[in-house]
Structures are given as C-alpha cells and as structure tokens.
Amino acid sequence: MAEEKFRVSLIDVMNEFNLKLVNKVSDMRGRYIVSNEINRPSLQIAGYFDYFDNRRVQIVGRVEISYLERMTHEKRVRMLDRLFKTGLPCIIITRNLRVPQEMVELANEYDTPLFRIEMTTSRFMSALISYLNICLAPRITRHGVLVEVYGEGVLLLGDSGVGKSETAIELVKRGHRLVADDAVEIKRVSDKSLVGSAPEIIRHFIELRGIGIIDVKRIFGMGAVKDTEKIDMIIHLELWQDGKQYDRLGLSTEYTDILGLQIPSLTVPVKPGRNLAIIVEIAAMNNRQKRMGYNAAEALNNRLMAEMQENELEEE
Fold first, then answer.
1. Active-site entry in 143, 174, 291, 303
2. Active-site entry in 55, 182, 217, 230
3. In whole angstroms, what is the distance from residue 31 CA to residue 112 CA?
4. Which among 164, 177, 187, 188 is annotated as catalytic?
5. 166 in Cβ contact with 177 (< 8 Å)
C-alpha cells in the first residue's frame, strides 16, 4: 500500500509542534506531507543531489547552519537555490538557530514554508517521525469490535449477529474498555505494531440489537472507553458447528494476516450458555503470558512427556 495514498496537512504539523513560520508564503492551505521519511540536507548543501527525495521534510540543525555560515555569500546562494528549486514541502530549523538571510529570501522566492523550533535536532526528528508514522500509516477498516482487556488489545471478528457487541458491553461492565464497535480503523504504525481506533463519527457508540444505539462513555463513564489501542490478538467468533473439531489444547498458535503483519488469533465457537466475556478475558491473559515466555499448553505437554518417559524407564 503506497504511502502517497495518505497525507497530512502541513498546518496540522505546524500546530502539533508549535512551529514558528519564519518567511512569508502565499497560502498554507492545500500543502501536504506525503512521506513519513525526513532528511537532513547536509550532502545537498555540499552539492550532492543523487537519490535526493524532494517529498521529505528537510530538517536543518547546527551542523548545516554552521557549514552554511562558512561559505561565501555567492556559494551559499547557489547551493540553497539548488535545494529550494527541487520543490520541498518545507524546511524546519531546530534549536531556534539564526536563519541565514539568503535562506529566507530564497524561501520567499520559491514560496516554500520555512519554520523554526526550539527543540534539539535529535529530539525533534524522533517526535516528527513518530507523528508522521501514525498519520501516514497504511490502513484498512474491518467490521468488528476492539476492546482493551487487562492491557491487551483484543479485536473481535465474526459475522453480524454472532454477539460481538454484546460481549463488548459485558467486558465494559467488568471493568475493561471499549475502543471501537462495528467499524475498526486499523493502522500499521511500525513493522511490528497495528493500532486500532473508531471512526470519529461513531466513536464511543455501540449498537445492541433490540435496544439500539447507546453511548458507552455517557452510561459507563470516561474510564470505560479508549480512543486507540494496539492490537495484540484477534478472536474470531463463529456459531458452534456440530462435528467441527475445535482446538482444545492450544499447542499451535494460529495467526491472521492484517496489513502484512501476523497477529496471534483464536477461533471461539459461540452457543447458548457460553460466557464469552470470561472466555475473552482468559484468552487475553493467556496471550499475555505467552508473550512473556510461558505457554500453559506446552508446560502440560512437557509434564506428560516426562511422565511417559519415567513410566517407560520403570517398565524396562
């Protein structure tokens, strides 16, 4: 999924980090960032433009400013002109460093936003990369319910009417938190993490057949909801099928592929009398134990194997 499909407004970035605009630009509206990669243009200021990506935000720190100050006026104009000519989204000066006058003039000429911020270069780059990774992350929407159970993000999937929303309400009553109902927006924020949230228009609302729409935040309080949550596991709810063999030991771990990441998953059969909320709680705690290095199924299997070996030795 190409990152160009997603974009973040430059105004949003400016407001998020309280960036100070140094020069005059025609209009900040309609300016977007489409790449979550950033660049320090040290090599470009020195004249090397091979493999240069002009979609990236350019970060200028103490090294670049000190290097520019050692140049003659003519060379500084020539190098900066070549940089601005590429059509940058913006340049951000860190540490509130003094901006060379030639840079301001060329930024005005090419109508390129030139910002300044007090943060150190490393801290700002880290914060900006994290922010852009979230805003520009590849994403999909899945029909399901996302809840936080004992600190684990659990995505409930299944056909309509199988009981996902009812299970979520029972979990909320037991002290857990609702993130999204019906539509779950999932973003791949890193090579290891998926984060889920609800569309703004239906956030904190849940549909219960026979009752209708309820506002979970209003009924159960602020502690019953959460805006976003990492997806740690997936539980597929399906109506009980007689004759179908369901996993009873848990020795092997199933995975579900979402946006190229393999997320641990379970299939839980649903039939009258089963308390799905308790099952989800146990599944969440068991998944957490597995991530911490303990697998109850493997521990039991090891006990059985050891017992069998002892019996064989006694028989010999």
1. 143
2. 182
3. 10
4. 164
5. no
Give 179's pLDDT tier (boundaries 50, 70, 90). Answer: very high
How far apart (Å, rounded) are the C-alpha atoms in residues 300 and 176? 30
pLDDT exceeds cutoff 90 at 252: no
3-class DSSP string for the chain: CCHHHCCEEHHHHHHHHCCEECCCCCCCCCCEECCCCEECCHHHHCCCCCCCCCCCEEEECHHHHHHHHCCCHHHHHHHHHHHHCCCCCCEEECCCCCCCHHHHHHHHHCCCCEEECCCCHHHHHHHHHHHHHHHCCCEEEEEEEEEEECCEEEEEEECCCCCHHHHHHHHHHCCCEEEEEEEEEEEECCCCCEEEECCHHHCCEEEECCCEEEEHHHHHCHHHECCEEECCEEEEEEECCCCCCCCCCCCCCEEEEECCEEEEEEEEEECCCCCHHHHHHHHHHHHHHHHCCCCHHHHHHHHHHHHHHHHHHHHC
- Tell me, yes or no, if 143 is annotated catalytic: yes
Pick the catalytic residue: 29, 70, 244, 248? Answer: 248
Q: Is 182 assigned a catalytic role?
A: yes
Residue-level pLDDT at 5:
65
Tokens of 251: 């020795």
What pTM, to 2 d.p., does this model score? 0.77
